[in-house]
């Protein structure tokens, strides 16, 4: 058994419900990240693709469209997300509620894909070794994960601007399972090599995250993603209003032609089974 209990609990219930309710805004924010990962992963017609940590299934359905007449399968540890994925995209793709660390994979897939879904494993080497079992010989892994928080103005700057208004956070250890769990690319390289992967490539990309067409929309989005969202969740209305006022000028700096779009640095990681 894996020890991903804390993540299973975190990604079930209110956090996932919030993501699902704001799916349109999340997809808009992640549009450039999704496009970069899709180009990097290069899914093609006839492939069978596994989407790890698929969330509500948007990327899985998009993969299914691209690989027709192949097949896309989404796997996620969260029942809340998998229930939503089946409702929203069950006609296009199939979905498995399971922990990627210990699901009994057989070598059925050509490509393993993940958008921000593989940074949460308590034991990354065991998890990536298990995921490798899902691929046919020569099959490929392609995922995107966040770089360090300091390199993601979209998440870091609002957080720093509002931090003193928020309850103190208990310190987490570097590389702990979480959004920045694979921020150290040298460590990611070692994890994948130790898990038996070949031809590992790790590329850095800095991409726009369109948080909203207006500052108000961008604030709403910022309050529901990343470290700030975790901090602000249990605060009272007065604190939430103070946080909004504090982050508005920070986001305003990133106004572009189509809205508020601060940059975010990500790693595009590839390997062969
Ligand atoms: C940041 S969300 C990304 C969701 C989706 N890929 C997207 O981009 O919208 C991370 C996802 O990883 C899933 N996850 C975390 N640990 C997992 C595990 N051990 N096995 C499978 N899924 C996991 C979570 O439930 C969550 O859906």
Describe the structure.
- The protein is of the alpha/beta class.
- It has a domain at 5-149 and 175-209 and 265-272: Vaccinia Virus protein VP39 (Rossmann fold).
- It has twelve helices and nine strands.
- The protein starts with a helix and ends with a strand.
- The model has no long low-confidence stretch (mean pLDDT 95).
- S-adenosylmethionine binds next to β2.
List the helices and strands and how they pair.
Blueprint: H1 5-10, H2 14-21, H3 23-29, H4 31-41, E1 48-52, H5 58-67, E2 71-76, H6 79-89, E3 94-97, E4 109-115, H7 124-132, E5 135-146, H8 153-162, H9 185-194, E6 198-208, H10 215-222, H11 226-232, H12 237-252, E7 255-256, E8 259-260, E9 263-272
Parallel strand pairs: 1-2, 1-4, 2-3, 4-5
Antiparallel strand pairs: 5-9, 6-9, 7-8
Helix pairs in contact: 3-4, 8-12, 10-12
S-adenosylmethionine is lined by residues 4, 7, 11, 53-55, 59, 75-78, 81, 99-101, 115-117, 120-121.
